[in-house]
Amino acid sequence: MFLIKPALRARALARRGETSIEGAVAYAAHLAVEGLALVKRLPPGIVAAYFPLAGEPSTLPLLENLANAGVKTALPVTGRRGTSLVFRLWRPGEPTLQGKMAIEEPLGAAPEVAPDLLFVPLAAFDRAGHRIGYGAGFYDRTLAELRAKKTICAVGVAYASQEFPEVPHDEHDESLDYVLTERELISCWVLR
After folding, report:
1. Which residues pair with 163 in a beta bridge?
2. I need a labelling partner for 163 at 20 to 30 A (CA). Which of 15, 64, 120, 181 fits?
3. CATH number, position 68
4. Cβ atoms within 10 Å of 109's Cβ, excluding its own
5. Rounded to whole angstroms, how far apart are CA atoms 93 and 175?
């Protein structure tokens, strides 16, 4: 029986909150290496990742590895609730400004792009690629919009403790293609 989404989200975020500082640092380093390896296997044109909030696995070492490997990188810009994310080119070391929800974003002068691969934050996931985010639906809308135009790869970024046997999902929820945890790379499309 499914837990309702808000209860599952709270449980998953509580599990994530139990991660030690050492565990978080080790996972960020693992993500930087394994994320780059995945990108090299899939060679997308542009890769987007999120700028981490407190408690989220850090994608900053990954973004640095990608940029050093010559991959074009981007960050999301959050608009009004009910809209899709906009992505702007950004490399580590370039300036940011604090946008909605206190998330660092590229400056408005940075070129807008449509990424081919996205590293996606989440609260909970299952092996079929279903995810629960933070409840605003930004990534579901964005992935649906991008997938209507071209092939997009969505990689969930999470600790293994955020996995559940089954995550409730609706018709409008977009699935992940992979989830990269500190333990493994999960190919979600295999279970669909």
Report:
1. 125
2. 64
3. 3.40.50.10420
4. 7
5. 32
Instruction: Check if the beta carbon of residue 117 is closer than 8 Å to that of residue 168.
Output: no
Q: What is the 3-state secondary structure (H, E, C) of 42-70?
A: CCCCEEECCCCCCCCCCCHHHHHHHHHCC
Report the C-alpha gap between 167 and 163 in whole angstroms.
9
Residues in the chain: 192
The helix or strand, by DSSP H or E, that contains position 38, with its residue range, turns out to be helix 21-41
Number of domains composing the chain = 1
For the stretch 50-101, pLDDT in tens is 999 989 999 999 999 999 999 999 999 999 888 999 999 999 999 999 998 8
Beta carbons of 30 and 182 less than 8 angstroms apart: yes
Is-contact 47 19, C-beta < 8 A? no
Residue-wise pLDDT tens digits, 71-85 = 999 999 999 888 999
CB 140, CB 101: distance < 8 Å: no
Signed CA dihedral, 96, 99, 105, 106: sign only: negative
Beta strands 153-157 and 178-180 are parallel
Q: Which of 158, 170, 152 is nearest to 127 (CA)?
A: 158
User: pTM, whole model, 2 decimals?
Assistant: 0.94
Domain around 178: 5-191
Task: Identify the three-state secondary structure at position 164.
Answer: coil
